[in-house]
Structure formats: C-alpha cells, structure tokens
Design brief:
Helices cover 25% and strands 31% of the residues. The protein is built from six helices and 13 strands.
C-alpha cells in the first residue's frame, strides 16, 4: 500500500490509519512503487491549486491515470478527492484538475465556513465503502470547497458510480465509489471507529 507523497500534508496520519486498518504502508513519490502497489492513497489538505501543483511535480496525475486504466484501486481523501474533478475555483482562480470526473470544485454556499467538525452522510444502500457503518455515524470534515453537483452518468469499469452526499448549507458530494476510483471529502483517518471501518472496507476490495 502506498500513500502518495506529493508535498501535501497529513501524510503520516493517513499512513497510521491505513496501517491500523491492517495494511503494510509506504509513504513515497516513487512512480514504480505507486504504480505497483495493491492500493494507492492520495491524501490532500490546503488549496486545490497548491495540491495540483505538487501532484504535477511528481507526475501523480499520470500515476493515477495509469492505475485506473489498469483497474488498480485509488483512494482520494479531502483535497485528494477534489483534484480528481475537472477543475477547482478558489478566490476567483481556476485550476485544472486531473479530470477523472467531470465537474467543478467550488466554494460552498453556507453561512459558516469552513465546514469543520463532525457531520452525517447519506450513502447509497448498496455502498461497499460504508458497509457495516450505521446511517447515523458521523465523519470529520474540514473544508470550504466541494463538488456541489455530480455530473458523471456512467462510471469506470462499466459500473454505475455510487455517490454519497452530505449537507452544510447545501448538499455536496461527500464520497464516491466509481470502479477502482474511490474518494472521500471527509477525513476517514480522523473519523474514529467509523473511519477505521471505512478504510477496512476499502482494503477489503483490494
């Protein structure tokens, strides 16, 4: 299991959480290791543009694309999920994302930002990511930007995408299961027992 090191923070907490969930982990930017690993975790904190700059610097967009082309699992977390969309708009600045999914990451319409703390989510009944997790469980969010719409009808590997939603001022995409590409807007590594179960669910698919 590789945690992709592209200069974004939160690497060690993601590494510890995945290790506690039962996987041997390595934090690296080495392309060969990232391509060959059973699973690749792409964490991210901070600004969309800064994360994309760091990702491009280690050719992470190519690594993600090659893995998905071969059906190899990728898990994006927080801004590591946001950069999977076509573009991000922050403070009037538009930045191109990896384009794995169509859509724009933009500022939430909410009275209080950032959205910081615990919140519930609405997962599809057939979700594998949230299997065994009670509907009322809460997950830990820290963000002001999100994908406010889901624009992809057909998914990777011919599978219909499963989209999980949350609400802070308005609905936004909280998680996605799309063939080998899964992602969460919240931080499973900071979400206690529910987050640990979610990571175990992902590892169980590898």
């Amino acid at each position: 299991m590789v945690i992709l090191d592209y200069g974004s923070g939160n690497l060690r907490s993601a590494e510890r959480a995945v290790a506690r969930a039962g996987a041997e982990t390595e934090v690296t930017a080495d392309p060969h290791a990232a391509l060959e690993a059973d699973g690749l975790v792409v964490p991210g904190v901070g600004a969309f543009s800064a994360c994309m700059s760091g990702l491009l610097g280690v050719h992470g967009h190519r690594i993600i694309g090659k893995r998905l082309a071969g059906g190899r699992p990728v898990l994006g977390i927080c801004v590591g999920m946001q950069i999977l969309f076509s573009r991000g708009v922050e403070h009037g600045e538009e930045t191109e994302g990896t384009g794995e999914w169509p859509g724009t990451v933009e500022r939430l319409h909410a009275d209080v930002l950032p959205h910081m703390g615990w919140n519930t989510v609405r997962a599809p009944a057939d979700s594998q990511l949230f299997a065994g997790i009670d509907a009322g469980e809460r997950f830990y969010f820290v963000h002001s930007y999100a994908a406010r719409k889901w624009e992809l009808d057909s998914g990777l590997a011919g599978q219909q995408p499963r989209v999980t939603w949350a609400n802070h001022g308005e609905d936004f995409v909280a998680a996605v299961e799309n063939g080998p590409l899964w992602a969460t807007q919240f931080h499973p590594e900071k979400s206690g027992d529910a987050g640990a179960q979610l990571l175990r669910n992902w590892l169980g698919t590898l």
